[in-house]
Amino acid sequence: MFYLRGIGSLLGFGLASLYGVWITLVRRDRSLVARDYARALSRWMPPPLGLEVVVEGIENLSAQQPCVYIANHQSAFDVPIFAGIYPENTVIVGKKELSYIPFFGWIFRVTGNILIDRSHNPSAVQRLRGAEDAIRERGVSVLVFPEGTRGKQPGGLLPFKKGGFYMAIAAQVPIVPIVASPVRELFDVDRRLIRPGTIRIRVLGPLPTSGLTEADVGVLIEQVRTSMLEAMRTLPTTPRGAGHDANRQLAGNQLHATPAACRHPLRRDPLHPE
Description:
Elements: H1 2-26, H2 30-44, H3 46-49, E1 51-56, E2 68-71, H4 78-82, E3 90-95, H5 104-110, E4 114-116, H6 121-138, E5 141-144, H7 163-171, E6 175-180, E7 187-188, E8 193-194, E9 197-203, H8 217-233, E10 238-239, H9 244-257, E11 261-263
Parallel strand pairs: 1-9, 2-5, 2-6, 3-4, 3-5
Antiparallel strand pairs: 1-11, 6-9, 7-8, 9-10
């Protein structure tokens, strides 16, 4: 099932990417292209994987904009997990290797996202300054994965790189942490594992940077990292199987009880955006 599910998800990725190329060619508004491509990815990649995503705190995505979103990075699973909550008018900071992925890399570039060369620090710094300018001049938000590479320790975080935090302080915009529960129980290439189940995302409240200076970066990083680790400890990943139905029913009851949690918008039709 590992290979069948993986091939099915890749086919969904390819279909979504072809759609993304088409809308990139026919639309002028690149922010809408990025939004609808993300919706297509969130619609067509998860079903073969048996993946369901539950989102808490979705209202925090748009509580204060522009902002710098800080998210944890775990695996290639991040694409179908985070695509459905992609905030409009947001650019993503990613490694230059993303540009080599067929279709995806081209769309990533032309929609204004930022590719950095981690092996060449001056170039990376210059690109991040470009993102800072985009926040000030165009009012866009920026999504950063500060670990810089995939963290493989379930429930843990690698040390954070400082670039995104310097950016938020320089632009005096808030930081909004986004945390996904551990994916290792559902997806692990080393173990040839793809298992159906539920991933949970929590969007934490904005953390202001007004009045902070570069001297405060260390304290800010620690504050954000601590809040994300605390969230990860209370975000379970639920494999489908024994006990899954009960957990799913509990999650459903919680969703009906509070607007702070919602189902991932996997079933939105990207061909008919709102």
